[in-house]
Amino acid sequence: MENLHNKVALITGGSRGIGLQIAKHLAAEGVHIAITGRNFNHLEDAVDELSTFDVEVTAIVCDSVNKEDIQAAVAHTLETFERIDILVNNAGIMHNSSFLDTTEEDLMNMMAVNVFGPFHFMQEVLPHMIAQKSGDIVNMSSMSAVNAGPTSSAYSASKFALSGLSDGVMREMRQHNIRTFLIHPSAVLTDLIGEVTLDPETMTHPEDIAEVIISQLKINRRTFVRTNQIWATNPTKL
Ligand SMILES: NC(=O)C1=CN([C@@H]2O[C@H](COP(=O)(O)OP(=O)(O)OC[C@H]3O[C@@H](n4cnc5c(N)ncnc54)[C@H](O)[C@@H]3O)[C@@H](O)[C@H]2O)C=CC1
Ligand SMILES: CC(=O)C(C)=O
């Protein structure tokens, strides 16, 4: 099994939802944490929560649509910890609308955060992982990258694109001892999905996604789970 203790993780969109749970679960394993997000106060609250673990924590204000922000976030993480072992491309947005009501701007916004963000983060981080001959990339896609639904064409397009990007990176990078994990959750109980009509207890919670990711990262590094699909037991419309 892989020991995560003393590794360094950079988690995008780490101040709430699935990203915060991944950060907390990694911190519980002894992983030093850098989180990014757009809102300084939200990041500060997350740092307070993460500081209860016996690890170092840093937070960086970084808009995933801004390449310079991303370069600065990666540079800050490397200055602070001198390495990045795990990059979690988690930050994402979803806008639901019927196809004919979806504007070019809606599609561009989702492509900017959900595809170009991970693209730039991986371009910044991978040279360091190649040099250190080790690394793990976790790309947070979605079941919407497997089956599009009505009102999710643009979001699905962005997640299909992320899945393709991730799969290509995986094929190039595994020769460098870099594992690329492509995660496909179905609906998870976070702010992203808006109003919930199901019994919350029957839905997947952010900590469930974090547990799956941590268990995958702990597999002996000669092996990795290329992609997964994480479903709730309770049937949903998704
Ligand atoms: N909640 C769900 O049902 C599912 C979520 N996902 C994916 O999981 C990831 C996390 O989503 P949730 O935790 O559910 O949502 P959330 O809305 O609770 O959290 C999203 C995070 O991304 C950050 N973010 C958004 N735009 C950003 C930007 N421009 N720059 C920097 N950070 C930005 C937010 O600040 C927040 O921290 C997303 O990529 C989402 O597409 C995938 C499948 C299901
Ligand atoms: C929000 C999302 O990505 C779903 C429901 O697959």
From TrEMBL:
Listed SMART domains: PKS_KR (SM00822)
The entry's keywords: Oxidoreductase
Highest taxon listed in the record's lineage: Bacteria
InterPro entries: KR_dom (IPR057326), NAD(P)-bd_dom_sf (IPR036291), Sc_DH/Rdtase_CS (IPR020904), SDR_fam (IPR002347)
Entries under Gene3D superfamilies matching the protein: NAD(P)-binding Rossmann-like Domain (3.40.50.720)
UniProt keyword Oxidoreductase present: yes
Domain Ketoreductase: 7-191
Family: Belongs to the short-chain dehydrogenases/reductases (SDR) family.
Name of the protein described by the UniProt record: SDR family NAD(P)-dependent oxidoreductase
